[in-house]
Specification:
single chain, 418 residues, mainly alpha, 3-stranded antiparallel sheet
Length: 418
């Protein structure tokens, strides 16, 4: 059982409810539009049709007039037969109800109590869903350590499950991403170096979260805009993210269109292209995002590295010997800084000036310091944008034409020899 469940003493189950009396009283205390629900509750409960009863309770909870009564119906009526419900449905129902509890202590107590009843042994996926939701609540209420403890506990279970519903995965990756966002905001005030460690895990967990949700159904326009904005910032500032292809193809970025943040979307494409000219033209806008302005030297180095990667990628497999002069021209770096840039990008840094921690493993190859050139044999695999796929298609077509030419030249020789 998780630490959250263990920290809460076992609470006795409420006294056996007189269902008929409770539902009769509820009818007289609720609006007429809700009366059919309570009548259906009584009928289905008496006939022990638990699946149908669960569906009807779900309908009731979604009714706009039911909100003032949801907590009472859940804690008194649903609690009476919860052991007969699918644990995952019970957890989802409880999470929905918890949003009506504004008091932080009561909110956490409600979720912790439910977690203690939906155990890992009974239903590991439902337990993960509740752990992740509890972790998110702790995060919102400022308990970062408690949130991290529950996140880690949820992952230990989730990592060993073969298949779970998207709602379970989504709940985990959402809180994991948001945890790193809170840390990056906290560490930004302490210093940029501490903050940088949080950008990459936020980026990866956010993309995994988005893979589990329906943008239109599960996220409001405001939530989509905020997520797209934060994903873009994390992509720019992460020390290990040098391929934006997966993000650029995701519809979440459409949330930035027509907003004051639309320029950030354009800047993402600029980085992915390694286009230093566009970067310099867009840099005056960085003042709108102080975190970008304060990290300008890092962003400048990053766009140079991405220009190098794009330059190598655009070349054929047999045309990847590049002079320092060529690299200097394509990255707009002084000639005496080119070698340092290449070593930063190399898969294995051999210079004593560049430690292993500084090697980004973006390319593999060697440096000829005498002839001032770099021989590149490998480029980090990438998720390609549509434009990059188009360039790759052109290279394949050119390669195909060369093969056709070779076939035409050797065909007569084959005929003669036969």
């Amino acid at each position: 059982m998780s630490s959250s469940a263990q920290s809460t003493s076992e609470r006795p189950k409420p006294p056996k409810l007189n269902v008929e009396e409770y539902l009769t009283t509820a009818v007289s205390a609720t609006p007429a539009d809700l009366h059919p629900y309570f009548e259906a509750f009584q009928d289905l409960h008496s006939r022990k049709l638990w699946h149908q009863l669960t569906q009807k309770v779900d309908e009731f909870f979604d009714h706009p007039l039911a909100k003032p009564y949801r907590v009472d119906v859940y804690t008194r009526f649903v609690r009476d037969f919860e052991e007969r419900l699918n644990p995952l449905r019970l957890a989802e129902m409880g999470i929905k109800i918890s949003r009506d509890i504004d008091n932080p202590a009561q909110h956490l107590e409600f979720l912790t109590d439910l977690l203690s009843r939906v155990t890992r042994e009974k239903s590991p996926d439902a337990h993960v869903l509740l752990l992740s939701t509890l972790a998110h609540a702790k995060l919102l209420f400022g308990d970062l350590d408690g949130s991290k403890t529950d996140i880690d506990a949820a992952w230990k279970i989730l990592d060993n499950l073969d298949a779970v519903e998207n709602s379970v995965n989504g709940a985990y990756y959402r809180v994991a991403a948001d945890y790193y966002k809170v840390r990056w905001r906290t560490h930004t005030r302490a210093g940029p170096r501490r903050a940088k460690a949080e950008y990459a895990p936020y980026y990866r967990n956010s993309l995994l979260y988005l893979a589990c949700v329906d943008l239109e159904k599960d996220m409001s326009q405001e939530e989509r805009l905020l997520r797209a904005h934060d994903l873009a910032l994390s992509a720019f500032l992460a020390e290990t993210i040098y391929n934006f292809g997966e993000l650029l193809m995701h519809p979440i970025l459409d949330s930035l269109d027509g907003t004051p943040h639309e320029w950030i979307k354009k800047l993402l494409f600029t980085f992915n292209e390694g286009n230093i000219g566009k970067f310099e033209a867009q840099s005056p806008l960085f003042g709108q995002e102080p975190i970008l302005m304060s990290n300008y030297p890092f962003l400048r180095q990053k766009i140079c590295l991405m220009a190098l990667i794009e330059s190598v990628f655009a070349r054929g497999a047999y045309d990847r010997t590049m002079s320092f002069q060529t690299i200097s021209e394509e990255t707009k770096l002084p000639l005496d800084e080119v070698e340092h840039l290449i070593m930063k990008a190399l898969r294995h840094a051999s210079s004593p000036l560049i430690g292993d921690g500084c090697s980004l493993k973006l390319i593999r190859g060697s440096i000829d310091q005498v002839d001032q050139k770099a021989v590149i044999s490998w480029v980090q695999p990438r998720v390609l944008s549509r434009g990059q796929i188009g360039k790759l298609a052109e290279r394949l077509e050119a390669w195909n034409r060369k093969l056709d030419g070779v076939a035409e030249r050797i065909a007569p020789e084959l005929l003669v020899s036969s």
